[in-house]
Amino acid sequence: MDAVRTVILADDDAIMRELASAKLLEAGYRVHAACDGAEALTILKNDGADLVISDLDMPVMSGFELTEAIRRDEKFGDTPVMVITASDRGDAVDRAFAAGATSFLAKPMNWSLFHHAVKFVLRAHDDRKALRAARDQAEAGAKFKDSLMGVMSHELRTPLNAIIGFGQIIADQFHKDNDNLHREYADYIVDGGRRLLNSVSDMLLASDARSGPITLNEAEVTLGVLVDDAITGVEKPLELAEAMTTLKICDRDLEICCDRALVSRAIRKLLDNAVKFCPRGVEITIGAAITKKGDLAIMIKDNGPGLKAESLEDLTAPFALLDMSMRRSREGLGLGLPLVKVIADAHGGSFRIDSRPGEGARAILVLPKTRLRPAPAAKAKPRQTGEDAPAEDPQTALLKKTGNGIA
């Protein structure tokens, strides 16, 4: 059986108090009547209530002042307040809502609808309380998940690093002994450990990105080193996929101020994505060129099946795999492309994908020109113009000629 709801009724009109109290008692409510706002506020602080119904124009303390006082109270500030007005001025209702009123009724009262109006306000208040409780629970769960993710990352990284490190030592020993079978087993251990470590790192980065901007460990590194780091991390998948890789890098010695680990990781994920969603023997182009704006565009292009236009919008959303069931045909958390975007945004850059069905896909990671540093050789050379200007870099020209240049 539901508990009896308590209503405080404040009105300086004795007849109005009597009629309204009778209707509320008839509907099953417990009623405390008050002749002004001050008395109603005292009853609320002493006994509490589920609803306050107050006339606006009263002596001692008006309905406006009562509503404002209730909203300032730490304990009862959330109590719904229904105001009653006989004023024909529209600003009276606006002023009441500005003070914090929940709803209002106009005099003369429609007594047949009075009970339903009270019932509606109480039900709406209960719904808001339930929503706030659900929100608070969800926020607490999110904070717990983020904390757990950080602990898991630390607790899993340590044993995984040991598994990977000793697995490599064992694999090298089997290689020296020409024991190819057991070396293959050891390689599987190392590969599995790396994949699990990458998954843990991806989840932690995604959690950090959801909580706010990720922290960058910035240093100057050359473009060639970034690309080499990325390719080293996917050598085995490229080999197993029999992928044909072509490099079209504008300047390997171009220095970039960035987080080396994160940018290399972003390029590696784009390469891994191209391998994962393309057929065996896929042709992959790794390109880099300076845009007309002076930014650096790093491109990963494949000749795979491509994507429909409607699918491109969802690619950077977390867990965007079309099939996230355990029976899905391709492994992965669906975090690869969203994390590339997070890394690009953290560096002040951008990320986009261009694709059409049957025409492959082109992923472009852009780093702003403010992060670029001229190569040492370029710094020593004076700027040349007119006929003395050097010819365009052949790799940059090739990117533009094949339609892969970035405007």
From TrEMBL:
It catalyses: ATP + protein L-histidine = ADP + protein N-phospho-L-histidine. One of its GO terms (cellular component) is plasma membrane. Transmembrane segments: none annotated. Pfam families: HATPase_c, HisKA, Response_reg. Residues 6-122 form the Response regulatory domain. InterPro entries: CheY-like_superfamily (IPR011006), HATPase_C_sf (IPR036890), HATPase_dom (IPR003594), His_kinase_dom (IPR005467), HisK_dim/P_dom (IPR003661), HisK_dim/P_sf (IPR036097), Sig_transdc_His_kin-like_C (IPR004358), Sig_transdc_resp-reg_receiver (IPR001789). It comes from Hyphococcus luteus. Keywords: Kinase, Phosphoprotein, Transferase. Coiled coil: none annotated. Its EC number is 2.7.13.3. Residues 151-371 form the Histidine kinase domain. This is histidine kinase. The modification 4-aspartylphosphate is found at D55. GO terms for molecular function: histidine phosphotransfer kinase activity; phosphorelay sensor kinase activity. SMART domains: HATPase_c, HisKA, REC. PROSITE patterns: HIS_KIN, RESPONSE_REGULATORY. Gene3D superfamilies: 1.10.287.130, 3.40.50.2300, Histidine kinase-like ATPase, C-terminal domain. Residues 373-407 are annotated as: Disordered.
